[in-house]
Amino acid sequence: MPEGDTIHHAAGRLRPLLDGHVPDALETPHPRFGRDRWPERLAGRAVTGVDARGKHLFVRFEGDLVIHSHLRMTGSWRVFAQRVRWSRSPARAWLVLRRGGHEAVQFDGPVLELMTAARARSDPRIARLGPDILAADFDGPRFLRRLRGDDPTRPIGDALLDQTTIAGIGNVWKSEGCFAAAIDPWRTTGAVSDEEALAVVAATRPRMQQSARDGFMARGVQVYGLAGRPCPRCGEPIRARGQGDANRVTYWCEACQR
Fold this sequence. Notes:
single chain, alpha+beta, four-stranded antiparallel sheet, 8 helices, about 20% strand, elongated
């Protein structure tokens, strides 16, 4: 699943193309949108902002209308010069926004909807989100309140994936953040101090910020996807095991993460 840095990176690519402009064209090729009339409803409206919160992306239009996107496991945003062949089949395009010789394309959904700005603020999927780790004014105390309001027997690695506790962290950055802070992702949240929980965020946030600016670079990972390889800190083999209700694979060093 694309994590918060991927979504912020996508918003950063869409913003200079769309923000402050009326799209030259808007198309919804997927059959599910056949009766929704997005091109007619958004015709002539300028984009007033493109922003991300956690793993959610918003394209805001005049008249308080908002396109809301969540990519889950399959979706993707891409920007192409017009007449350049797309990286995925056109049959997989759900939304195409054209302006100034470029095309912003959302492929493979699965969450793509047009809503009012008021609904975007009150929608429970969005209203319940915890503080965004990539927000300029990240709210550490609010993160700790959400964490302490959760089950204290829950492993810290699993708790970090809960978007109502902290928005934007996914399986890659959960594993990488716990490793960088030398904290065992299987330790219960009740046994993790506030200082340790904030240390995971402090270790993760700058790397996610860089990824949001430049795009994710897999060569920078220390443990994720490297089961059986030597730990870069102590040399012991990196371990991997499914964690949480979704059984997401966690990578960690049993020898030096405590």
